[in-house]
Every structure is written in structure tokens, then in C-alpha cells.
Amino acid sequence: MLTSTIAILFIGLIIYRRKTRKKITKHQTPITPFPANWRTYLIKNVAFYNSLTLNEKNLFEFKIQEFLLNCTIIGVDTSVEDIDEVLIASSAIIPIFNFPDWHYPNISEIFLYPCMFNRDLERTGPNRNILGMVGNGFLENKMILSKNALHLGFKNESDKQNTAIHEFIHLIDKLDGRIDGIPEVLLEKQYVLPWIDLMTYKMEEIYDEESDINPYGGTNKAEFFSVVGEYFFERPKLLAKKHPKLYNKLELIFKQDMDSRNLFIPRIDVGRNDPCPCNSGKKYKKCCGIN
To answer: Cα–Cα distance between 239 and 234 in angstroms, integer?
Structure first.
């Protein structure tokens, strides 16, 4: 039972939000241009975005706006800035990018904590080792993310980890009613048993300390799916080299050939009169540098 003061306050915040927020009667779609400063955040932080063609970038930007119109991000003892919203939305869109009509029906609010927390949602005291959580019970259709972990997931390009992507993969997994590592909404029925067999085999490698996959993936099949999903989107070429069968199965699930993408973060030192790094052909001051 949640007995801590912080948990009680958190529940109170959720109840307050339910009573005061405006009801969304239908799915909302963007009608305004993509903000230029958001594009700069994408260029500087999201390697996946930089690997896209111009048309794909336009779609990615549209899906970010769409996601943020339909999901509220709430700071808990921390402010929610534009870059936080852009990184959270990017984490949601990356796994389902090749499903153009995809909407997340099982997320309406995301609570952004400034740091790690424990299972009682406390940010002080012992056992504060949770970076993200997909809610159940009174947290149904909600997610909690650590702000520090959110940003670290996009800053470290070599650790195969991204907390926010991990949690959104859990949401995808949950759409069939169970978080069990078997994303039935994405995986055709004939591939389910081979996927289970492969998960079991790869988890045994983790137990035997014969794998470079994050050991947390050995916790259970649900965590394995999210952990290797992070690996797939963060270090696809390494995954394809070290675990080709696993890479091929994830390529089948997410319908993305990540190995062919050139993931990169440009080293940008742009003057206001220099060409904009988004390749628009405009000067930076007239494009992404607009305040």
C-alpha cells in the first residue's frame, strides 16, 4: 500500500487532474507549423531523426506534434520544458515510426520526475533505482519518467539504453492486455512461437553471462523485449553483428531496417548567417535559429 506522504500527494494530483482537465472528445491532429526550436532540439539530440529523409522528417515532426496534442506531460517538482516534450514524444514515435496510422490508446498523461524513485513513488529514502514506470491501477494510462534518465538516454550514443523508449515498448507490449514480451499487435501469429523460443534462448545467455545484452533483460520476457528494443534502436549495427537472429526478429516486429540507417548527432557550431543544419537551404537565423 502506498503510505508515504509523497505518494499520497501524487494520488491527489492525479485526482485533481481528472476533475479539472478538459475532456478530449476525439483524437486531435496538428494544424500549426512545427516549431523551429523543436527542430533544433531534434537535430542536436535525436540521432534517429537525423537518419531520416526529408519526407520522413516531416512525418516524424507531424507525429511528435500529434502525440503531444493527445498526451499531457506534467512535471512533479520539476519544470517541463520544450526539449523534455520533444524527447518524450520522440521516444514514443521511434518504435512505431513505420506504422503511420499508429496512436497510443493506452497513454494519456506522463509524469516527469526530476530524478529516480522507488516503488512507492518516493524520491528520497532507500531503493530509489527506478528510472521509468508504466502504470497500473490508479496509474492506468499513465507513465512516470525520470527527467535525468530521459536526457541521458539521448546523450549517450553507445550504451544501448534509452529509458523512455524502453517504457513506450512496454506500452506497445501491453496493448494486447498483457505485458509479457509478446507484442501481439505487431507480431503476426505464426511468428509468436519462434519469438518466444528466441527470447528464452537469449535470456539463458544472459543468465550464463555470455551476452552483452543488459542483464536487466534477464528479469523476465517483458523486460527482455524492452531491453533488446532499446538496443535495436540505439545500436542497431552492433546488434545485427552480435545477434543477427535477434536483430532480424526485431526488424520484423518493428518493420524497420535500423541497420541501414546512419544514426548520428551532428557536431554543430552554427553562426546565425550559416546554412541551417536541417538542410532547408535557409540561413540558420531564418530557420531553426528563430527565437
So the answer is: 9
234: cell is 540505439
The rounded distance, in Å, linking the Cα atoms of 231 and 233 is 6
Report d(CA 43, CA 244) in Å as an integer: 29
Q: 123 by DSSP, 3-state: which?
A: coil
Cα distances (angstroms) measured from residue 35 to each of 21, 75, 150:
25, 21, 21
pLDDT in tens, 149-172: 999 999 977 789 999 999 999 999
How far apart, in whole angstroms, are the C-alpha atoms of residue 106 and residue 124?
Answer: 29
What are the grid coordinates assigned to 203, written together? Answer: 535470456
> Which tens digit of pLDDT belongs to each residue from 96-132?
999 988 999 999 999 999 999 998 888 888 889 999 9
Helical axes 163-174 vs 82-93, angle rounded to 10°: 50
Cα–Cα nearest to 90, from 23, 130, 29, 44: 44
Helix axes 221-234, 192-207, angle to 10 degrees: 90
Q: How far is CA 261 from the centre of its chain?
A: 18
Q: How far apart are CA 187 and CA 192, in angstroms?
A: 7
pTM, to two decimals = 0.86
Helix (H) or strand (E) segment spanning residue 89: helix 82-93
First-to-last alpha carbon distance for the chain, in angstroms, is 47
